[in-house]
Amino acid sequence: MRGLDDAASGTVPGEDGARRQMAAHGRKPDENLCPPVIAMLIPASPLIQSPVFFENTVIPDDFGLLCWNIHKENLKPNFLKQIRTWKKDHSLDLLLLQEARFSNRLTSLGGFPFVAAANLRLPFDYSGVITAANADPKTSRYHMTQAKEPLIFTPKNALITLYHFNDMASLMVVNLHAINFKSLAWYQWELARLFDILKAHRGAMIVAGDFNCWRKSRIKILGHFTGLLDLRYALPRKDKHVKKWFGFHLDRVYYRGVELTDIQAVNCRKLSDHNPLIARFAR
Hints:
The protein is built from 6 helices and 15 strands. The protein has helices spanning 6-9, 15-25, 36-39, 77-90, 184-198, 216-228; strands at residues 47-49, 62-69, 92-102, 114-121, 126-133, 139-148, 155-164, 170-177, 204-210, 232-233, 244-245, 248-249, 251-256, 259-265, 277-282. Helix 5 packs parallel to helix 6 (216-228).
């Protein structure tokens, strides 16, 4: 299998070779120091879990998933009303939000318990990624980028949650907001770091979010990352509604170990500059 660095090096290492070659050809890029005042905006304890528990870690064998960069609009009444409607109309079981707002006071997301990973501390709450589900995660962990966006000096992050199906087979859900305005070397480096975490999981997996893959070279690196994890790209119906930059889809869903039965992009620009992806999977 081609290694994660092939886009930069043009060689064909194995899975272990990808990491060795990363050290040789994809060394950690130089990073500007974060100003102390800006550093105060990065949360010391990024992981927040809602106080609501279902006491259930089982995801149904047939499940619906929504993935959406909500542009910090998720606390507004219009968002909550829309989510409740989609939960009912599409039988949603998993909600993956990027660029969402939350706090310790938020008890649920559309009635679902949630786990959130913050990458930015705001005056009264946090911003980051949220994964909510009709089941409690068996485990959850956050993953922060070492790279920081220019000017605001904040990292991006991923949230990794683990659920089970009825037969106790595992489902790993990765909610990702990828680094954006950094070099190609940083983009490659950060996906390699995430790969190191995910590669040990042998069960079903969904990796979804805003990949910020707005150039051909980023798409190529992303393709190697998903290939190493044996993930398939879910191409949406009505893909004209998917957020694009320079002609490339930013919001994406990748999967393995489950069957994709449907995915569509829903036109809802009244709440965000991104449109949600709604997918359905079965075992």
